[in-house]
Amino acid sequence: MSEEIDIFKVRELMSSYYQSVTPIRQFYERPSYMGLLKVGRKELPHSSFISWLFDSSTFNQSNPDSPIMHLLDIAVRRANQQNKIGNSKSISTSLSESIYGRLFSVSQTSCTLEDPISDKNKKSRSDIIIRCRIKDSERRLSICIENKVLSSEHSEQTKAYFDHYQKADNTDWLFLFLTPLSSVKLDDYLNLDKKEKCTSEAFVQINYQDLLDYVLEPLINSVDKNSQVYFILDDYINTLRYPVMEGNDKKRTIMAIGEKETKLLSDFWEGNHQLIELALEAMSCNTNLADDVREEAEKAYYSMKELQKAKDSTRYVVIEKNQKDDNNDKGYNKVSIAKKFAQIFCEKNSITNDIDANKLIGEVINKNTTNVFKRQDKKTSNHNYEIHLMNGEILFLNTNIWGESTDYWRNLRDYLKIENDYFRIEEFIK
Fold it and tell me: pTM value?
């Protein structure tokens, strides 16, 4: 099955494993308070924390970097992705511009849990209502958050909440649907399965990873490490990242992963994938194990082998105006080609925003997408390559979608292999 590895190599791999697993073990061995109480995947405790986070009695919400303003940033960013900004859409153009440009400030917020409403003689409760006073304005901004941790929406709740709240006078309403859905899936919102969305199109879908990346981690980095607030934030973040086996289908849920954890796990994988492969191979051949265990180990083993086979190391020569780019004597890899193309693409098309960028590149790669470019204030693990636009804005290119097996790369490669408006590529030959 695997290539033969001598005992000395195995010992070397084992030594590397013990060195790399220690920080991960220490990272996960510390339980959270919510975990100890067995409520780490219950909606109400999470809703209670969120209410605490965005209430003026907890934090000053009136400055441009407050938790509530970062929540509004998330809402606009996701609404952009989901094509929900504009007249008669989830967020008006004027409100989105006011949020991005910090043209208003919140003077005070108050949060309500389990707010009761009446829907066709049926009583129900919305999870979280955040009411915001806008400084120097008679208008109000209110946010309705429907929070789902393990379950999906039932009884068209979001439609009922929208119908109930949007009638309020002198109030701008923003509706958010919060779930642990991974950012990989949510970034491709237009192709989400129906059961992963909510019934009301008025709701903008966000996830716990957004809260961690854009609210919690910036906040915990700004507070005193010896304070009670730091302890509460740190403990809650630990709750989000801890894998829990719950739900009717007994799926293991991780609600969000922080930067530190991502690096630890990535480094562990890079240093130990050979040892993991050997362990899976040994398990698949161990007749002392149950048949189903051996079968799962064998499946995992061959999945790893297929993953390795799928890794394509082909490099490319860039040809512009019939001239080869000789700046790189080793050729360009797939991600480098995508970066170079994205920069030139944005310049030639005078791109000013992510909506136009995704729409136009979708026409090039023959794919309906909102996932190639993002407008945001910092890099993420996926969108991490900066492209500076002529209007001063910055877009971030998704560098994790250009694998050999993806339509994104295959379609871009095929487009660049023939005459086009940007540049041509040929396979690099040493």
Answer: 0.70
